[in-house]
Amino acid sequence: QVQLVESGGGLVQPGGSLRLSCAASGFTFSTYHMSWFRQRIGKERELVASIGNSGNVMSHVDSVRGRFTISRDNAKNMVWLQMNSLQPEDTAVYFCGAVWSWSDRWDVNNYAYWGLGTQVTVTS
Predict the structure, then answer these.
(1) Residue 93 CB: number of other CB atoms within 10 A?
(2) SS3 content of the chain, % helix, strand, coil (to 5)
(3) SS3 86
């Protein structure tokens, strides 16, 4: 049974940090590229960051570059999102997803597997 389970979300003040985790099981993790998406209330799910299947390439969208860092460990079947300097506009449900093709990572419809998400709320 394929599972992606996110954790690490919570309530944090502006300027604070969180580290999101995504535990994968039930599929060959090391063959999939992994991404973090977020979905704000009333908005579509949007890509935040992606990492190649071997961890040798990463991309971060402009709004989080320099603040967020994606990483993975194929031996542990884990992917993380380190989030620093959090701002209220980062408030969202964060999802991890697995995609086969790197060039397909932008489109949610191309993802093979999704987790259920973890809530991040940034407020003073």
Answers:
(1) 18
(2) 10, 50, 40
(3) coil
* 75-100 residue pLDDT tens: 999 999 999 999 999 999 999 999 99
Tokens 């994606």 map to which residue? 70
Q: Give me the mean pLDDT over the 1-28 stretch.
A: 98
Q: What is the mean pLDDT of residues 7-28?
A: 98
CB 111 within 8 A of CB 97: yes
Q: Are 74 and 52 contacting, i.e. CB atoms less than 8 angstroms apart?
A: no
Q: Report yes or no: 62 and 39 within 8 Å, Cβ to Cβ.
A: no
In this structure, the dihedral spanned by the alpha carbons of residues 20, 69, 99 and 104, taken in order and rounded to 10 degrees, is 140
Strands 10-12, 118-122: parallel, antiparallel or unpaired by DSSP? parallel
Quote the mean pLDDT of the chain.
97
